[in-house]
Amino acid sequence: MTTAIDTRYPIVLMIAFVLMMLPGSVLAAFHEQLAVDTVAVSLANAVTAHPPGHMAIHYNPAGLIKLPDGKYFSAGLTAVPILEATSAFSQDPDFEGFMGTYREDIEVDGKSGTSTSGQMFLPVYDDTIDFLAAPNYGLSYRKPGSRWTFAMGGYVPFGIGLTHGDAGDPSVFGGKTIYQQHLVYFAPALSYQATPTLSVGVTFGLGHSAMGAELEMRAPNEMVALTKLLGDVTQGLEIPVLSELTLPPPWFGGGIGPFNRVASLELDMADNFSPNFNVGFLWEPLKWLSLGTCYQSAIKTRQSGRYTFDYSDEWKNLMTWLGSSPTLFIASNVLDLPTSAVSRQSGKVTSEVEYPQRAQFGIKLKPFQHMRFMVDLNWIDWSAFKQDVFVFDQDIQVFKVVKLLGYTGGNNTLMLERNWKDTWHWSFGLELDALDWLTLRCGYEYRPTSVPDSNYDLIYPLPDLRNYGAGFGIGFDNGVVLDFAGAYLLNKNIKIPSETSSNMNSTDFTKPVYNPYAGMNYEQKTEAYILSFKISMPTQVISDMFKRIF
């Protein structure tokens, strides 16, 4: 079928050209909206003015008015079968070594490693699995001729997780496994057709949040290296009676090498009740032009769970030494230092985590009857994320010691500075009705990270990403629609030179938490593949199917 070009076509092209020429932002999306809906995956999330079926609940609840009359159902699954973060470390050639002596880091220097799988928490299973997948479902009802549409659904708006499982992977010091996610398991919504061209909608969500990490801890630091140096030079320095009363040799129990493992940490937390809401508007003043906007509230969670610190032999020797003489025992108590060794500390940990508020603005242009071009602008309030704060139910030995190096978090609190930035980014989508039963889609989204280089680490290892999406939908005479999508996300290379990040590779001894790669140059390549499937249909189709079976 050939469609004539009318006088609106030059206007549409002009608007599209202006939008395409606008510059991308410096900082933008991090780990939100990667796997919410199949249609959105194929259109690279450019759907605010063209909401994708039931998942309008998330993207723009005003768009629920576009669903068919009667009862309608959908279910989908989005999986990330491949998420590879390849890390490479190299010693800064200008690095002189700690105390001018300790420079060789055989576990990290010149080594690289690639994540072996994803990581996610399953609420019902109550454990993690080495895979990333996000389900969604939707149910809706609109009485024929009514202005009201009622719906409910579930989806995953935030999620990331990685596992570094290979032996010798140097990434284990920054994050052997990490995951952070939010699942909206029940989200009732409604939309109202206020005028023939304007609809409004609102969603109220209840969600489950979870986060966890496992890492090997070490402290490449001048002061730590000093304990090792003094431990080495005082081997055998035994002064009868005097040594036992003051400083028994070797000092510091032999000390801790700057590249030695101090402890391993494992923590898992969750919040089973995290509410949120979305408000959306959809305005269609012309047949060829639609405008949409959606505000998504912040999601405030108070997560709690379990933690375990397992300490190394070198650390236990140091703790034992701090209480090994009357002089040391008194000094350690004055400085509030441990005076005896423990192999493990475990208990309850809590953390208040806030997923940021967001706003989306979208335009849909329709230059031809069977073609739609969408542009979205997204703002995310990542500047609200100032710190990671984890509060433990007891004093932690590591924190009691590192406070002597300037750490101000306290004996039972782990604080990591984040200071992320508000983010803006664009996405573009194109949809074509190739045949009466076939719809083709593609999209592009540039997602610069919201994490500044000064706070980059392997707990949040997503850099700038380019998101390429594509997919298609197949419609059947009985109202069933099958949608398929795939996406490819890529960052060829991010570099964090030595001394750049105070959470990763700084050698400043006044920043002891946490720089496991002090003096190292870091490079990372990131690739991810996303596959998604969704089926949508009138509920009558399901009823008819069961009648035929039974």
Brief descriptors of the model:
21 strands, two-stranded antiparallel sheet, single chain, Porin, elongated, about 550 residues, 10 helices
Architecture, according to CATH? Beta Barrel
- What is the mean predicted local confidence, pLDDT? 89
* Head-to-tail CA distance between termini: 43 Å
Shape by Cα distribution = elongated
What percentage of residues falls in helices of 4 or more residues?
10-25%
In short:
The chain is mostly beta strands and 550 residues long.
Helix-strand layout with pairing:
Layout: H1 9-21, H2 38-42, H3 56-59, E1 70-91, E2 112-114, E3 120-122, E4 127-129, E5 133-142, E6 148-163, H4 172-175, E7 177-193, E8 198-218, H5 222-233, H6 242-245, E9 261-286, E10 289-296, E11 299-311, H7 313-321, H8 326-334, E12 344-355, E13 358-368, E14 371-380, E15 387-392, H9 397-402, E16 413-417, E17 423-435, E18 438-447, E19 465-475, E20 481-496, E21 520-538, H10 539-549
Antiparallel strand pairs: 1-2, 1-5, 1-21, 3-4, 5-6, 6-7, 7-8, 8-9, 9-10, 9-11, 10-13, 11-12, 12-15, 13-14, 14-17, 15-16, 17-18, 18-19, 19-20, 20-21
